[in-house]
Amino acid sequence: MRDVSHRVAGTAQGILILVAAALPVMGVVLLSPIAPRLSAAVGTGPGGIDLAPLLLTAPALAIALLSPLAGYCLDKFGRRHCFLAALFAYGLLGTMPLWIDNSYAIIASRFGLGTTEAIIMAATMALIGDYFTGSQRDRWIAYMTAFVAFAATGFYILGGMLGNISWKAPFTAYGFAMLIFLAALPTIFEPDRSAVPTAAIARNGARAERASGALLLVLLITFFCSIVFYIIPLQLGRFLETRGVTSPTQIGLLIAIAGLGNPIGALAYRFLRNIRFEVLLAASLALAAVGLGIGVAAEGVQPLVIGGFINQLGCGMLPPLTMAAVLRLAPPHRRGTNSGGWSTAFFIGQFFSPLVVSLLVAVEGGNDVLLLLTGANILVCGFALAMFLSDSIERGTADAATGAA
């Protein structure tokens, strides 16, 4: 029988969830500064295939593929047990490359790490939905997405520092999960979801169908927003090179400056949460489009970085906005599964973002200015999408709330 607690969550639970939510970001970001050295370290596979990209992307692939299953396990076996097991396994699998030298074994451990990250991502999102409600929930969502964005910058720096010691040294940082595991033991409790009957949302078939349809629309929007979200983080370096910036150190610094808009945008969601979903989505995409437009409008590096910062302000609001919508639409007994669905949509969008950019570059003949203009057009399409889907999402949110009442 599931061990359900009637404790009330507070700041301690919220802070621990914030810290744990940063672990999946560590999966790839921590190793990015040593990516060039990984090719020489892990060698090549059959046919001379470079194994380093597999080592880097294996966690993200696991998250994209397994997040719905991870979310289902949370709903089936309980949040606390799955979360604690994932934290412990994260620490073991993350540090495993310190003790093994076989390249294929290291890649396998990295895929296993991504499996634990899928559980941790779904668990942190579901626990926020279980522990908190209303404005309190939206506030913690904003804090979580902002903290993860700030943490990513710190992981870049940490990975570079440890990488100066050896290519294996960055893997020691994954052991930090063990400390989070120890802190979670007395802090994280199984939420009481019995207060809301699991079949409540099914009282009205039409209502339940509309809520499910609205959830699928939000996941579709999440996928689209993820493609847009990663244009600047993944492509700003190449834009800077076309304007004469060639130093990797300088490029990294300028990307970090532009990226500061991301956590600021995420925090801004806390104060804008009462705005209707489609209005805030359209405004966020419009702000991102304005940023791209500023980067196009003037020559030189400074306008490009300023435009990137403004773009990231808008993009920073997209994860908490869509995440909050998923949690509002999800009935308590499916909150884990739907959180996993959000993770899958966002990570698949991350995978497709550079492919879309490469396609646009090919269509536009490699002209980065035209690429930025095309990116702005994509955001305008997103604005139209938000307006087209707005009524369905708002009705679905209302139906979900009524069904859970």
Write the layout of secondary structure elements.
Elements: H1 11-21, H2 23-29, H3 35-42, H4 52-77, H5 79-95, H6 103-131, H7 134-163, H8 176-187, H9 205-229, H10 231-242, H11 248-259, H12 261-272, H13 277-297, H14 301-316, H15 318-329, H16 335-363, H17 368-403
Structural summary, described in words:
The chain has 405 residues and is mainly alpha-helical. It folds into two domains: 195 residues, MFS general substrate transporter like domains (Growth Hormone, Chain: A, Up-down Bundle); 209 residues, Growth Hormone, Chain: A. It is 78% helix and 0% strand. It contains 17 helices and no strands. The chain is globular. The chain starts with 10 loop residues before the first helix and ends with a helix. 50% of the residues are buried. The C terminus is likely disordered.
Whole-angstrom Rg: 21 Å
Which overall shape is indicated by the principal axes computed on the Cα atoms?
A: globular
**In what range is the share of β-strand residues?**
under 5%
The chain-level mean pLDDT equals 81
Structural descriptors:
mainly alpha, Growth Hormone, Chain: A, 2 domains, 17 helices, disordered C terminus
